[in-house]
Automatic annotation (TrEMBL):
One example of a Gene Ontology biological process annotation: lipid homeostasis
Localization in the cell: Membrane
Domain TLC intervals: 52-249
Secretion signal, residue range per the UniProt entry: none
Record-given protein name: TLC domain-containing protein
Keyword Transmembrane helix: yes
Record flagged with keyword Membrane: yes
Membrane topology note: Multi-pass membrane protein
Length: 249
């Protein structure tokens, strides 16, 4: 029944992988709750944080684990000849499994941003919704080849989270934060400011060359969020530079 429903809405791959998407969503929530319980019990510094910051801290834990999963899991996708044969529509069981986990994370992210909307605001909610649209569209199947380069954006996320943890756990201005800050800027520049425009150009070119095959709507769901994120990345990079420098003046 579910398979028939997803086929009717143009997402035939979602049916076979729905269990993994939901498992990922539930896993993220369990990790969130587990990290809150762990740090409440074992970290005096965490216990002193405000309720909102405790929530934010645990969300960063889940974000860190998700980012590490992404940067490891996408490596085989870059070297997969099956995906390279058809950059728009090719898929494999492996790529579908990876994207199921990613999609589940962003479903959880949407849930959290709306649950704590008053704390995190419209910006985080729109980002989460945009990511859900992009990665759910992969179950058409669509964009598995380009999804690997998109997930390369997560290369800088572990360092961003460590930077955040240093501030919250009393390591502001430490050597650890300095080294991490340098790695954050380098990886952010390479993965987002260099890789981002190249990815967008490659995708737009592929869609244009195969415009008779590709759906304009599906392509737009990838192109416009990607363009918006790439533009924001330049703004965020300047803020990161100021943030890192401010901690070592």
């Amino acid at each position: 029944m579910l398979d028939a429903f997803f086929k009717s809405v143009g997402l035939p791959l979602m049916g076979p992988y729905l269990w993994l998407v939901l498992s990922s969503t539930i896993g993220c929530q369990l990790l969130y709750l587990g990290s809150r319980g762990f740090f409440t019990r074992y970290s005096v510094t965490y216990q002193k944080l405000s309720p909102v910051k405790k929530i934010d801290f645990a969300i960063h834990i889940v974000s860190l684990v998700h980012a590490l999963f992404c940067v490891i899991a996408i490596v085989p996708m870059f070297h997969d000849p099956e995906l390279a044969k058809d950059r728009l529509f090719a898929w494999t069981p492996y790529s579908s499994s990876v994207l199921s986990v990613v999609c589940g994370y962003f479903w959880w992210d949407v849930f959290m941003t709306f649950r704590y909307f008053r704390n995190f605001g419209i910006g985080f909610a729109l980002h989460a919704i945009g990511c859900v649209f992009v990665f759910t569209s992969c179950f058409r199947p669509f964009l598995h080849y380009f999804a690997a380069s998109t997930l390369l954006f997560e290369l800088s996320t572990p360092f961003l989270n460590i930077h955040y943890f240093c501030d919250k756990l009393g390591y502001t201005g430490s050597r650890l934060q300095l080294v991490n800050g340098i790695l954050l800027l380098v990886t952010f520049f390479a993965a987002r400011l260099v890789n981002g425009p190249i990815l967008t150009y490659s995708f737009v070119r592929e869609c244009w060359l195969r415009r008779d095959e590709s759906s304009l709507l599906a392509a737009s769901l990838f192109i416009f969020p990607n363009l918006a994120l790439t533009s924001l990345n330049f703004f965020w990079f300047s803020k990161m530079i100021r943030s890192v420098r401010a901690r070592f003046k």
